[in-house]
Structures are given as C-alpha cells and as structure tokens.
Design a protein that fits this description.
Chain A: It is found in: Membrane. Chain A: Keywords: Membrane, Transmembrane, Transmembrane helix. The structure holds 2 protein chains of 2 kinds. Helices cover 83% and strands 0% of the residues of chain A. By secondary structure, chain A is mainly alpha-helical. Chain A has 2 domains: 78 residues, no CATH class; 155 residues, no CATH class. Chain A starts with a helix and ends with a helix. Chain B has 2 domains: 61 residues; 41 residues. The chains are: A mainly alpha, B mainly alpha. At the A-B interface, helix 2, helix 3, helix 4, helix 5 and helix 6 of A face helix 1, helix 2, helix 3, helix 4 and helix 5 of B.
Chain lengths: 243, 122
Amino acid sequence: MTEFWTELVLLRDHLTATPIASIAITLSAFFAGNVLFQKMGRPSWCPGILLAALLVVLLLVVLGIDYTRYQAGASWLVLLLGPATVALGVPLFQQIHHIRALWKPILLTLPPAATLAALYAMMLAWLAGATPELLASFAPKSVTAPIAIGITEQLGGSVPILMGGLLVTGVMATLWVNLLSRWLKIDDHRVLGFALGINGHAIGTVRAFEISPTAGAFASLGMGLTGVFTALFLPLMWMLLGL
Amino acid sequence: MNVIKGFLWLLGFLLLGDLLVTWLQLPISAGVVGMLLLTAWLILRGRLHTDIAAVSQPLIALLAMLIMPGVVGVFFVLGDYAHFWLAAVLALVVGTLLSVLTTLWLMSRMMPRQPPRESDDD
C-alpha cells in the first residue's frame, strides 16, 4: 500500500517536472470555471476568473503540488501576456472615432478620474498603515490586469496582491456604479459605460456590455485610456514621491 | 498562416517597445509601449491590419486565462498580509466608492447631452 503511494508521488513529481502539467491544470480550470460561471447565471459579484483560480487552488492542494512549482510551469503560458498587451492596441484603434468626437470631455474628465482612482486607494491604504509594497500593489487597482501587472512590477509591488485587489475593485465598481447612478439619476449610457471602464477595468466593461453596446464601447474606451494614462503617470509620480 | 504573421507583428512591436524602454530608461512596461506604438502605427496607416486583427482577437479573448495564474497566487500569500485587512478594505471598497462617485459627477458635468432635453437646466 505504502509502496503504491510512493509510486503515485513519484509519478506526480515526474509529471510536474515539466511545465506541461501546470499548463494543463490552468487550461482545464479555466474551462471548468467558465462552465460553472455560466451555470451560476453569470453573477457580477463572482467573476469567472475567480472560480477558475479557486479550482486551481483546489487541484494544487488535493494533488499536493507546490505552488511555486505550479507558478514556474504556468509562467510559460503567462509569457503570452506581453504580445496580448500589445494586441490591446487594436480595440484602442477601433475606438479612435469616439476619442476624436468627444476629445474635450474625455481630456477634462479621464486624467483626473484615473488619477483620483489611484490616489484615493493609496491615501486610504497609507492612512491604515500600509507598507510601500502594499501601496504599489493597490495603486493600479482600476487598471486592466495586463497593464496593471507591468505597472506593479515597475513600482515594486506584489503581483498576487494586485490581482486580488483588481478582482475586488472590479466587483465593487460594478456595485457602486449601479447604486450611485440610481441615486444621482444618471441614465446616459456613455457616462455609465465610461465610469464602469475607468473604475472597474475588464469586470466593469463586461457589465457595461450588458447595459447596452454604447455603454460597452465607452467602457472599453475608458478602460483602455485609464490603462495607458495610469501606466504613464504612476511611475512618474512614484519617482517624484521618492517611494 | 495569417495568425502566425500577425503574431510576428505583435512580437515585433513588443521588442520595439522593449528597446525603447531600455534605451530611454522609461519607467513603463514594454507591453504598454508596444501597445501604444501599434495604436500609433494603425492611426498613421488609417485602417486595420488584417493579420494583426486575426491574431489580436483570440489573444484578447485569452487574457482572462493568462492572468488567472496570478490570481491563484493571492490565496497563497493572503496569510502573510492578513494584518493589513483594514488598508485593503479602505483602499478597495471605500476608495472605489469615492472614485466612482467622482467619475460619475465629472462625466455628467462634462459630457455634452446626447438626447437634447430641456436646454435650460444647468
């Protein structure tokens, strides 16, 4: 019996010696998470990616696979994040007519909104005694993940903490936009979409597409511009603050 | 074949972005610079590049899967950061409330009215 067990452990160690097992775990959890997400009726409080991540955690714990070993294998897949970030230039280009038509209100609202999204988070976290590492992990919390990961790495933050922050922020932004727009009696879909994209990155954008295609287009635009603006402004501010 | 060609274009822009970041010592990630270069090039070109469009769509659809391993990490480091729970709640819940409020207020001020209703309010 114990011999059989040792055999199994050896087999597991053999399989996880190459990145293939990690990649297979990631892909299968991603698909299973997606199916589960559809079955649950696409709830906005629980993004599909969270379900998939929890499935991976479950698999790693049950199979006794070391997290760092999984991460080393999955990094082969994550390598694609670079070209995928570049690919975001295509939807940005497709939104260019919106930018041309509304450049003035965009110029007046996007930079302060994106700046404040980062500043509010940093100020509040700083008041609660957060370390510089934690501040660097929360600062890009409203930025779409592929860009935010680059920013946090530049600033010296923790990528796992950032990812958790992004998930919570996306869900909260969706909730607050729903509640506050009712309270402020705002029903302009362009404004709602923009607010969802600027504050809630991809999670907010998904919600915006459920409101209307116009809201979705403005959310993608808000998300893209917030990402670009924050990627340029945060590292500069970091240098000025001397963090 | 189109997808491979498009992918090569993306890698080209990524490498170009990396070159610029390294030479100019920019505090920005190579991917973001590559994205901006691609956007600028498409604007100059005036139309979409079919090979790049062919590879961008599936890659963007995969983004959620590419960032998922990072999300997995949260559950393994959460214990180390547990005593910062207040900072996290304030930054993520209250911070997002404030920034949504600011954005909605700014936007509804600045955005030209789409369906012209009463012109005399505000």
